[in-house]
Amino acid sequence: MAVKRQQVIDAIRRQAQPLQAASDLDALVQAAAGAKVVLLGEASHGTSEFYRWRTELTKRLITEHGYHFIAVEGDWPPCYEVNKYVKRMSGAKRDVNDTLASYYDRWPSWMWANEEVRELVEWLRSHNERQADGRGAGFYGMDVYSLWESMEAIMRHLEQSGQTELLETAKTAFSCFEPHGREGQQYGLSAVYWAETCEDEVVRLLQELQDKRQRAPGAGDAEAALSDELNALVARNAEQYYRTMIRSDSSSWNVRDEHMTEALDRLLKFHGPEAKAIVWEHNTHIGDARATDMAREGMVNVGQLVRERYGRENCYAIGFGTHSGTVIAGKSWGAKAETMRVPAAVEGSWEDLVHEGSGGRDVVLMFSRGKSEGAGTRAPDADGKPMQIEDYDDLMLAPEPDDRDVFMNTFDHRAIGVVYHPGREHWGNYVPSVMADRYDAFIFINRSEALHPLAPERVGV
After folding, report:
1. Torsion of CA 282, 288, 292, 295, to 10 degrees
2. 253 and 356 housed in the same domain
3. Same domain for 325 and 421?
4. Which of 189, 261, 278, 354 has the most CB atoms less than 10 A away?
5. Separation CA 78–CA 149 (nearest Å)
6. Is position 232 within any domain?
7. Do 387 and 378 touch, CB atoms closer than 8 A?
8. Domain identity same for 358 and 403
9. With contact defined as beta carbons under 8 Å apart, do 288 and 307 qualify?
10. Final residue of a domain: which of 275, 294, 320?
């Protein structure tokens, strides 16, 4: 339906719930807690409040609802170092700063080597130490960019554990990539124009590592075996990613998001049939692509793929956004990062409308009640009768039908990448989105501030 600006503002005013304290997340946590996968987004990779509110949600999902791990938009090798640290595994670094230092040479370093992530990591380690069964919550990377580092990690572990036969397979795969000098684009050009690919080698390595773990799932260090397998998965899919990158941006995007979804699926299977995951990624990955103009370009993303794989009722996606403030980003890929001003949202955009409808406050908007966790009854109602699950659902915050219809319109929704030019916002920083279809809920920060890097001198801030 056609919708006027004032209709949207009025609907937001009716539905927006203030966000000031952790307790203001109660209804949102309850709505999300029935999902197998909770997806927590961000409108940029450099905004402090996005990380801090995701941390609050993550803590509660883990402590109150037993979520098993966090999977992030980061590379497997450095994230696995964090996983070892929070679980006090063999070979883990002693200090959180040393653990996060593995991100320093990986642009954009500020994305994970920051004070906000350090606080989360320290909390995870403390939480895990208190678990009686010794099975704490994990921290894993889902991304595809670590081809050479993943291959090296595989060979290092196979050599240390004396797995000679598998080591030879890994060396064969690594030697195929070696002539390309750790340059993915160079490999892609060679693969496309000279048909010199390493596909067979990495597929064979992944298959052998997967077969080994499936033959003896409880033997030895299960997490180390999982790490070898996921590193091999990175190698296989990164090889495809760099090949498709030369031909098509949309195809390489799909390879990347399909990889992240496959990595998530393997992590869920590793943690057992009842496993539940929390995903931290940019809005462009966790918000269903079918509710944006990405679909017209033939692009898919994690948000769409997990809904298709596990059922929409088993996924809960929370988008984030801001009206104005500051952010850390770079002016080009690999450039020194800096603190940049985020200008006021473009008039008529989703962020502009929420700013107006919320009265300039931080708020939560819920488009879906989610799926109730568990079965049975809840606390008694006002008449002293136990509340059934379906009754409890009716108390959850979610739009009335007329307001939901308003939110099913298409709005321009801001997305800031690691490369950002504030002065060019009108030409590429807004994604047409059906908000109530793209997300199940939305957290709005009226005025946000930049992340706090652990080593600001290394990012030029």
Report:
1. 110
2. no
3. yes
4. 354
5. 9
6. yes
7. yes
8. yes
9. yes
10. 275
Q: What does the pLDDT read at residue 194?
A: 55
> Span 27-48, mean pLDDT?
97
Mean pLDDT taken over the chain: 88
Q: Which has more pLDDT, 200 or 236?
A: 236
Q: Which helix (H) or strand (E) holds 435?
A: helix 435-438
- Radius of gyration over alpha carbons of the chain, in Å? 22
Whether 386 and 397 map to the same domain: the answer is yes
H or E element at residue 325 = strand 315-330
Into how many domains does the chain fold?
A: 2
Tell me the sheet residues that pair with 315: 37
In a domain, residue 69? The reply is no
Range of the domain at 210: 156-275
This prediction has a pTM of 0.90
Task: Give the pair of three-digit tokens for residue 391.
Answer: 């009754």
Distances (CA, A) of 99 to 52, 64, 265, 288: 20, 27, 26, 33
Residue 140 counted as domain residue: no
Q: Look at strands 363-366 and 17-18 and give their pairing.
A: antiparallel
Residue in the structure block whose two tokens are 């600001």: 456
Q: What is the mean pLDDT of residues 67-72?
A: 98
**Position 214 pLDDT exceeds 90:** no
DSSP letter assigned to residue 460: T
- In whole angstroms, what is the distance from residue 25 CA to residue 128 CA? 23
Q: Is residue 238 part of a domain?
A: yes
